[in-house]
Amino acid sequence: MAETKYGKYFLTEPRLREQANLPPQIAAHKAVLQSGPHFGTSHFSMCWECITQPMVMDPVPHTHDCDEFLAFMGSNAENVFDFDAEIEVWVGEEGEKHIIDKATVFYIPKGLVHCPIIYKRIGKPVLFHVIALTPAYYDSSTTKKFFVRKGERANVIADLKKYIESNYSPALVENAKAYLKELEQ
């Protein structure tokens, strides 16, 4: 849409559509906006995904060097509060478990340990929306720093090995492999 004076300010398909390998629990492709690569400005990235089946998202606890917001909404466009799911979210170095069973926005300050996110039950599809205050959240291997909670080292190694190739973006694969090597020593 850049043929006009202001067309450069509109991001549409195909650039808005993320072509990553998505697990079958996520319906269709995800939509991703990164203000840096897409517009060359600001500190803002976001992604929309529709979760249709139980799954584990990001099994390994981690932190980011930016603030982040995770929104869990119903996928009924006429009523996003029509929510029928149960999701576990683990937060903090001690692994405090929170249950999401209604439309929720979770604010994650820079440096706060979070994950895994476990979609335990999906009665109706969940619109999962990530908002990160960084210009290239999905392209940077430095935004995610892994964390091991006390007594979970073996589980983290197993989860990371299983999850790494099929779910991480290419930019994060090398970072995750390096972390895995550190854990295994």
Kindly, what is the distance between the CA atoms of the first and last residues, rounded to a whole number of angstroms? 51 Å
Q: What is the molecular shape?
A: globular
> CATH class of the domain at 23-147, anyone?
Mainly Beta
- CATH H level of the domain at 23-147: which superfamily? Jelly Rolls
Main sheet strand line-up: 1-2-3-11-6-9
- The CATH architecture of the domain at 23-147 would be Sandwich
Profile the largest sheet.
6 strands, antiparallel
Q: Find the structural class using helix and strand composition.
A: alpha+beta
Helix content: 10-25%
Secondary structure layout:
Blueprint: E1 17-18, E2 26-34, H1 35-39, E3 45-51, E4 55-57, E5 62-64, E6 68-74, E7 85-91, E8 96-100, E9 104-108, E10 114-122, E11 126-132, E12 144-146, H2 153-167, H3 170-184
Antiparallel strand pairs: 1-2, 2-3, 3-11, 4-10, 5-12, 6-9, 6-11, 7-8, 7-10
Helix pairs in contact: 2-3
In short:
The chain is an alpha+beta fold and 185 residues long. It is built from three helices and twelve strands; from the N terminus they run E-E-H-E-E-E-E-E-E-E-E-E-E-H-H.
Please characterize this protein's 3D structure:
The radius of gyration is 17 Å and the shape is globular. With 185 residues, the protein is an alpha+beta fold. The protein has helices spanning 35-39, 153-167, 170-184; strands at 17-18, 26-34, 45-51, 55-57, 62-64, 68-74, 85-91, 96-100, 104-108, 114-122, 126-132, 144-146. Helices cover 19% and strands 36% of the residues. It is built from three helices and twelve strands, in the order ββαββββββββββαα. The relative contact order is 0.20.
